């Protein structure tokens, strides 16, 4: 007991010293001896990240635009590389090429009933002109129709009202789905052009004070963004299924299936107001009305607009920065954590609020490595390029290394934008218990409670009559976990603190001034994210047996099946397979707990055999061919919705077939789901048998 008390005070003293890095590097070797435990190393790692360094990184990298394919992106990658090497890490840049369109012509004007020409610019001169990457080219003049958020249900409502958009240009407001869904649905309904604007009800003055007084979108703010058809496949549209490297095979532009077929243009609500105000026709349904000081009409009528968009569809280089910390016991089992470094303009919030904490995590691990810490498994840290165009850098890297990743990658961890809100975690159900335990080790910067206790307290306050509990949310798409989880079937996580409300997303105002005034103002949440990153990475890397278990997966599948219901598809075989999974998962957990003391003493060969089976668990949930109409998405539990783009569809094959009233397809998808659950159950039984023999 005395030794434990002495170690406790020693660690607390060391944590204090670690906040002063130069002093810590001198004293730490004397404070840690050869018997330092993994828990103590993790405590040291959590003491190293500094809010001031996170602040400085965000301020530096957001000072200039660094859009993928530009010199700014290359400079950012080279600076990150230099930092990682300065931390003592083995780091390098992998270069790819991809179609990264930039605008040549952008014209939007109302030709009737009165002339008006849209400005199509933001107040600041810094950065990239507002545009939608992967827009189709077009020069069209046509009547205008307002389509609310531009989703399938909105077109159903227009049909009820007798309004046809065939041959029309539609104007949709941002929100409700990934922006790339809007022009595709418009094209499917016969529209010849698509305008997307930011309504002040959603992120402008209706929500609060606008810039510069408050955090919300000003009148001329524009949300840039890709309209690549992510629901079909992310990555370079000219190299689907293979890595886009210099000299590699490329499709002709006309062969690409994820580029929009009609011209698309994002605009501000200052530019949108004259267009919407000129519309006649029926008054929009109440739920469709925004906050502009006009009566929202649907059109069509006399209001005619001219839309011209031409893109320079050229290939440009991408720079993925990868650091590696070799494992000393299981070097061929990998833990990978990624965050992108490219931004539409300055990107203080998106992505630097997540990238800067990951860089601090890298510094912490580098510092520990200098002091003698060696992970059991290899840890990779990645700063992806081209995420904003459609997860390009991560997807191309995955395609290049797919065979090796299938053999070696145990878990992929993702982070992206982060802020000063509540901690949130999404991911594979097999990691649910692990994340819950890791959250106990990091404190919320505001409440001082552990992240787990803070989460439960927030839930109790929001719903006092319900038992508070934490579970991982399922992953859809919209960030770099997608190629690893939903194509390869790698168990994955996405970690962040919630961002503050505001209206600067993908605009020139996503800068250091906005972020330091309105979001993580003291950068303490960034420090906490770096601490959580290090905790998760180190625990995954150092656990003798990977902390993956499957009881929560069986529970989640049961919930999803109940949500779908049995009225339109026979789910009996799936329910039976899931019951078998639940039974096998419970037996595995019991065997693991019973063998807890024996596991650390097991031979490397036995541990490797069990870990291979655990790594295969998420892979078991994938199947070829992939989902109907989009075979790239192979995961049968989680996928982005075909008409959401970002938001998840659980049990996507069955659910979307049911929604489409396609009974035959729903039945086939149910068979395939039962098949993958049975495969997973078999592998769980195998690892359970190995545990029982220890």
Can you describe what's shown?
The chain has helices spanning 2-18, 21-31, 38-47, 51-61, 71-86, 152-160, 181-188, 200-203, 269-277, 352-370, 387-390, 392-408, 432-439, 451-462, 482-488, 512-518, 524-542, 551-564, 572-594, 604-619, 652-659, 663-692; strands at 90-99, 102-112, 116-117, 132-133, 138-146, 169-173, 193-197, 225-226, 264-267, 304-312, 315-325, 330-340, 377-384, 409-414, 423-427, 491-497, 638-640, 648-650. It is an alpha/beta fold and 694 residues long. Strand 12 (330-340), helix 10 (352-370) and strand 13 form a beta-alpha-beta unit. The longest helix has 30 residues, at 663-692. It is globular. Residues 1-35 have low confidence and may be disordered.
CATH architecture of the largest domain: 3-Layer(aba) Sandwich
In the CATH hierarchy, what is the class of the largest domain? Alpha Beta
Helix- and strand-based class?
alpha/beta
Largest sheet: 7 strands, mixed
- Supply the number of structural domains: 4
Low-confidence stretches: 1-35
Going by CATH, the homologous superfamily of the largest domain would be Zn peptidases
Relative strand content: 15-25%
**Strand sequence of the main sheet, in spatial order?**
1-11-13-12-14-16-15
Q: What's the total count of β strands?
A: 18
Rg, rounded, reads 26 Å
Amount of helix: 40-55%
């Amino acid at each position: 007991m005395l030794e434990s008390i002495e170690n406790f005070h020693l660690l607390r003293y060391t944590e204090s010293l670690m906040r002063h890095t130069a002093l810590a590097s001198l004293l730490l070797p004397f404070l840690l001896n050869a018997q330092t435990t993994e828990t103590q190393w993790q405590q040291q790692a959590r003491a190293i990240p500094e809010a001031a360094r996170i602040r400085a990184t965000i301020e530096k990298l957001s000072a200039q635009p660094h859009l993928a394919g530009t010199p700014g992106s290359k400079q950012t990658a080279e600076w990150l590389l230099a930092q990682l090497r300065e931390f003592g890490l083995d780091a390098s840049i992998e270069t790819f090429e991809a179609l990264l369109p930039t605008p040549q012509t952008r014209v939007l004007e109302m030709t009737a009933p009165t002339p008006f020409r849209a400005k199509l610019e933001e107040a600041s001169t810094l950065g990239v002109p507002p545009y939608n990457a992967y827009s189709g080219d077009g020069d069209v003049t046509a009547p205008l129709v307002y389509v609310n958020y531009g989703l399938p249900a909105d077109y159903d409502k227009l049909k009820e009202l007798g309004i046809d958009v065939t041959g029309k240009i539609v104007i949709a407001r941002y929100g409700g789905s990934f922006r790339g869904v809007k022009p595709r649905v418009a094209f499917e309904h016969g529209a010849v052009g698509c305008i997307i604007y930011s309504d002040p009800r959603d992120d402008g003055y209706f929500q609060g004070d606008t810039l510069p007084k408050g955090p919300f979108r000003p009148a001329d703010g524009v949300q840039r963004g890709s309209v690549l058809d992510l629901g079909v496949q992310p990555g370079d549209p000219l190299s689907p299924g293979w890595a886009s490297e210099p000299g590699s095979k490329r499709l002709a532009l006309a062969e690409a299936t994820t580029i929009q077929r009609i011209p698309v243009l994002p605009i501000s609500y200052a530019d949108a107001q004259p267009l919407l105000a000129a519309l006649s026709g029926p008054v929009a349904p109440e739920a469709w009305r925004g906050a502009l000081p006009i009566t929202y009409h649907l059109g069509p009528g006399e209001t005619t607009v001219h839309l011209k968009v031409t893109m320079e569809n050229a290939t440009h280089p991408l720079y993925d920065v990868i650091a590696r910390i070799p494992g000393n016991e299981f070097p061929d089992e990998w833990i990978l954590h990624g965050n992108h470094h490219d931004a539409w303009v300055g990107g203080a919030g998106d992505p630097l609020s997540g990238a800067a904490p990951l860089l601090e995590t890298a510094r912490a691990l580098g510092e520990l490595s200098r002091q003698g810490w060696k992970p059991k498994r290899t840890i990779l840290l990645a700063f992806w390029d081209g995420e904003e165009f459609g997860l390009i850098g991560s997807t191309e890297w995955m395609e290049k290394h797919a065979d090796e990743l299938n053999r070696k990658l145990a878990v992929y961890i993702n982070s992206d934008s982060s802020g000063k809100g509540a901690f949130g975690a999404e991911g594979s159900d097999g990691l649910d218990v692990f994340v819950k335990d890791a959250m106990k080790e990091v404190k919320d910067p505001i409440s001082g409670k552990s992240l787990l206790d803070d989460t439960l307290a927030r839930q109790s306050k929001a719903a006092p009559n319900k038992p508070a509990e934490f579970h991982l949310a399922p992953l859809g798409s919209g960030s770099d976990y997608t190629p690893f989880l939903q194509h390869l079937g790698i168990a994955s996580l996405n970690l962040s603190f919630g961002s503050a409300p505001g209206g600067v997303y993908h605009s020139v105002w996503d800068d250091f001034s906005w972020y330091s005034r309105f979001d993580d103002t003291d950068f303490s949440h960034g420090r906490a994210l770096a601490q959580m990153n290090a905790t998760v990475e180190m625990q995954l890397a150092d656990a003798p047996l990977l902390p993956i278990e499957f009881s929560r997966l069986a529970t989640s599948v049961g919930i999803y099946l109940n949500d779908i219901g049995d009225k339109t598809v026979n789910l009996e075989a799936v329910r039976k397979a899931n019951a078998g999974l639940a039974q096998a998962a419970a037996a595995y957990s019991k065997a693991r707990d019973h063998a807890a003391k024996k596991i650390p003493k097991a031979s490397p060969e036995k541990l490797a055999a069990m870990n291979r089976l655990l790594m295969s668990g998420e892979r078991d949930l994938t199947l070829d061919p992939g989902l109907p109409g989009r075979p790239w998405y192979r995961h049968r539990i989680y996928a982005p919705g075909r008409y959401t783009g970002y938001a998840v569809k659980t049990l996507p094959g069955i659910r979307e077939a049911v929604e489409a009233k396609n009974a035959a397809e729903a039945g086939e998808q149910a068979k395939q789901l039962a098949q993958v659950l049975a495969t997973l159950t078999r592998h769980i039984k195998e690892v359970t048998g190995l545990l029982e023999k220890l």
